[in-house]
Design goal:
Number of domains: 1
Structural class: mainly alpha
Order of helices and strands: HHHHHHHHHHHHH
Largest sheet: none
Distance between the termini: 33 Å
CATH class: Mainly Alpha
Number of strands: 0
Radius of gyration: 27 Å
Shape: globular
Helix content: over 70%
CATH superfamily: MetI-like
Strand content: under 5%
């Protein structure tokens, strides 16, 4: 850009000024609809398809197209859920008590699984020796179906709380380990060279370069671990349980009470949506610097 000889001021070309300055319509539109409001409005669109599905479901049940013997209506499920919340049934207990027991089991197994997975991923991702020792065992274990472990877990740990927590732990461990390991190995080697030039010690290199670089992949693993651990919780709670949502499903199956089964399954689904939303919120906060394609 040219400068005037007398004043030394930069004189911009008119075309550059036109390109740099936003049009009045765009400015008005941006002022009228700030980004935060657009994002909030976009969240409401996610409710359209669930509400539409529930509406069609209720309409099919009301018209007799979908018989209650096959699938109860949303209205019946809502009434059953209300009854379970306000009545302490001798068969099922209360819904909130069962939910609390299930959440405690899930939280214990999930927390331990994520912590062990991160430690193993760091050990194998940063060390070839650690990878040679631990990775083959972990790859073999993740190939074993969880349902095949039920008889062994009953023999080894009985029918108490421990096998149920272990089911959740194993289901949370493997997705988190695989994604965190891949994230660590995917960190740009040039960043490591830069850290060496700056004189960073190994612990500082891990804390400031390796772990932040692996964070996007690790958060993806966290989302997968949430869903996998909830699925394992459903299985684990049906192993001679005396409380929890899985216990409600087992009891309702014996009494052929489809409404209670649907209530428990919907609570599982809502819990999964809530936890997945929490992880997505964490991802937006932790990766605020990253610009996604959809934004």
């Amino acid at each position: 850009m040219p400068e005037t000889a007398e004043t030394g001021l930069i004189v911009r070309h008119p075309a550059a000024l036109t390109a740099a300055a936003p049009s009045s319509d765009a400015a008005v539109g941006t002022a009228a609809r700030p980004p935060g409001r657009r994002r909030r409005n976009r969240h409401w669109y996610r409710l359209v398809s669930p509400v539409a599905v529930v509406g069609l479901w209720q309409a099919a049940s009301s018209t007799g197209i979908l018989p209650a013997s096959k699938l109860v209506s949303p209205a019946s499920i809502a009434h059953t859920a209300y009854t379970l919340m306000v009545t302490n049934s001798p068969t099922y207990g209360t819904l909130q008590e069962s939910l609390l027991v299930s959440c405690e089991r899930w939280a214990a197994g999930f927390t331990l699984g994520i912590a062990i997975a991160v430690l193993l991923a760091v050990a194998t991702g940063l060390s070839r020796i650690g990878e040679a020792i631990a990775d083959p065992i972990l790859q073999a274990l993740r190939s074993i179906p969880l349902l095949g472990l039920i008889p062994l877990f009953i023999v080894w740990f009985g029918i108490g709380e421990l096998p149920k927590v272990l089911f959740v732990l194993l289901s949370a461990l493997f997705p988190m380990y695989l994604n965190t390991f891949a994230g660590i190995r995917g960190v740009d080697s040039k960043l490591g060279e830069l850290g060496q030039v700056l004189g960073l010690r190994r612990g500082e290199m891990i804390r400031h370069i390796v772990l932040p670089g692996a964070l996007p992949q690790a958060l993806t693993g966290l989302q997968l671990s949430v869903i996998s651990s909830l699925l394992a919780l459903v299985v684990g709670e049906q192993i001679n349980a005396t409380s929890g949502l899985g216990f409600m499903i087992t009891q309702a199956q014996q009494f052929l009470n489809n409404s209670v089964i649907m209530v428990a399954l919907i609570v599982y689904a809502i819990l999964g949506l809530f936890l997945n939303g929490a992880v997505r919120l964490l991802e937006r906060k932790a990766l605020a610097w990253r610009h996604d394609f959809g934004k």
